[in-house]
Amino acid sequence: MDKNQVKKKRRFANSIKDREEVLEVKQKMINVESEEFKGDIYLNKFINIKNKWIIENDRCILNNNYKWLQFYDYSCKNCLTAMYNDNNEIVEWYFDISKEIGKENDMPYEDDMYLDVVLLPNGKITLLDEDELEDALNQEKITKQEFEEAYQEANRLMEQIKDKADKLKEFTDKYLAIMLQKIEN
Asked: Rounded distance, CA 180 to CA 125, Å?
């Protein structure tokens, strides 16, 4: 494979509906042009889930009436998903480090760079999937430069969100309320 032509791991905002675990989901998108955010916000409200997703420390990130609020800032190199439980309480903020965030056929997407950052409500930050990034480099799905850029973005992001869980909660809660109102109308 030509080093200048990497294989993209493209994920569209509405692709969760195609997962076998998701039996029914309501989806809604809005465009926002404000001082605090410019881009598209996409809500997945899960109505009926075949199997809930439990991750480390018995934390559930997907179940009936859970919500995933995705933020697509087209000038950014990470895509935020705020995951809420059935009581509209934040479970975690999940940041996909991205090569590109764009829009195709009016649907937001992100070209995933394998590396992810998670921020918990208690402020704990975790870097995930370093093994996937290493595998992508070894399999020539990404270049050495992209490998380094993914780490640079993850490190920049982790520094940016350090001690900012309360501020991030205020921001994502605001848009969750807006989106829930829109999805019910």
From this structure: 27
How far apart CA 66 and CA 62 sit, in angstroms, is: 6
Kindly report the pTM of this predicted structure: 0.93
DSSP conformational letter for 8: P
The 3-state DSSP class for residue 97 equals strand
Cα–Cα distance measured from residue 5 to residue 3, given in angstroms and rounded to the nearest whole number: 5
Six-digit token string for 68: 């995933």
Sequence spans of domains, the chain: 10-179
Q: State the 10-residue block means of pLDDT for the chain, 185 residues long.
A: 54 92 95 95 97 91 97 96 98 97 96 96 96 96 96 98 96 97 87
The rounded distance, in Å, linking the Cα atoms of 106 and 42 is 12
What architecture does CATH give domain 10-179? Beta Barrel (2.40)
**Residue 56 zone, left/alpha/beta (φ > 0; ψ -120 to 50; rest):** beta
- The amino acid sitting at 125 is I
Closest Cα to residue 180, out of 23, 21, 27, 39? 27
Q: Which residue has the tokens 């993209």?
A: 8
